[in-house]
Design a protein that fits this description.
- By secondary structure, this protein is α+β, with helices and mostly antiparallel strands.
- It has two domains: 79 residues, 3-Layer(aba) Sandwich (Glutaredoxin); 127 residues, Up-down Bundle (Glutathione S-transferase Yfyf (Class Pi), Chain A, domain 2), CATH 1.20.1050.10.
- 56% of the residues lie in helices and 8% in strands.
- A four-stranded mixed β-sheet has the order 2-1-3-4, covered by helices on one side.
- The longest helix has 27 residues.
- It is globular, with a radius of gyration of 17 Å.
- The termini are far apart.
- The relative contact order is 0.13.
Length: 224
């Protein structure tokens, strides 16, 4: 564990794509000396989590020297600013930085909401979510174009925002009876490229494990 002067604690849930973002950002910066505390957000959130994030009551929370930082994209930006000596995650150019923030925000507002509805609903709601998710992924694919990463040749902020969702693709495909590869082959190629990075490989769980968790939750809640 880090010294008191530079103590880092991450409140985590292994299948949370938002917590994955933080772990990837830390890995990209070469930061390994931190405590990762697994939260049971499905059944019972810890008093410490509720104390550190009393507003949203959710992971991830990064606690740096006793001070909590909440919301994954804010945490990633914080990590980039505090540990700014190596591997910048955001461009320094103001326009390019705002561009990256726009697309990361797009992931949160246009990719995540339908992806959640897709596995938590049935009938028309699920079908609408399936359509909306595919449309959003196609927009992301257009933005990616022929680049290696969303920022060009360098893995960065937008890649960190989106790549954790790849671990949920099997969930979306099973629940939505769809094949993302058929609709968005470049997104799949990009994801496989990202997977080769050590920081991504060790922070993004196997999609079969995520699918087993979510399908079990669906069964318990009578969602078919």
């Amino acid at each position: 564990m880090a010294s008191k002067e530079n103590e880092l604690i991450l409140l985590d849930f292994w299948a949370s794509m938002f917590a994955m973002r933080v772990k990837i950002a830390l890995a990209e910066k070469g930061i390994t000396d931190y405590e990762c505390r697994e939260e049971d957000i499905v059944v019972s959130k810890s008093p410490f989590l509720l104390q550190m994030n009393p507003v949203h009551k959710k992971v991830p929370v990064l606690i740096h020297n006793g001070k909590p930082i909440c919301e994954s994209l804010i945490i990633v930006e914080y990590i980039d600013e505090v540990w700014n000596q190596t591997s910048p995650l955001l461009p320094t150019d103001p326009y390019l930085k705002s561009h990256a923030k726009f697309w990361a925000d797009f992931v949160d507002k246009k990719v995540f909401p339908p992806s959640r509805v897709l596995w938590t609903s049935t009938g028309e709601s699920k079908e609408n979510a399936k359509t909306e998710l595919m449309e959003s992924l196609k927009i992301m694919e257009d933005e990616l174009g022929n680049k290696s990463y969303f920022g060009g040749d360098t893995f960065g902020f937008v890649d960190i925002a989106l790549i954790p969702f790849y671990s949920w693709f099997k969930v979306y495909e099973v629940c939505g009876n769809m094949r993302i590869q058929d609709e968005c082959p470049q997104i799949i190629s990009w994801a496989k490229r990202c997977e080769k990075r050590e920081g991504v490989k060790k922070c993004v769980p196997d999609m079969d494990n995520v699918a087993n968790l979510i399908l079990d939750i669906r069964t318990k809640h009578g969602i078919h």
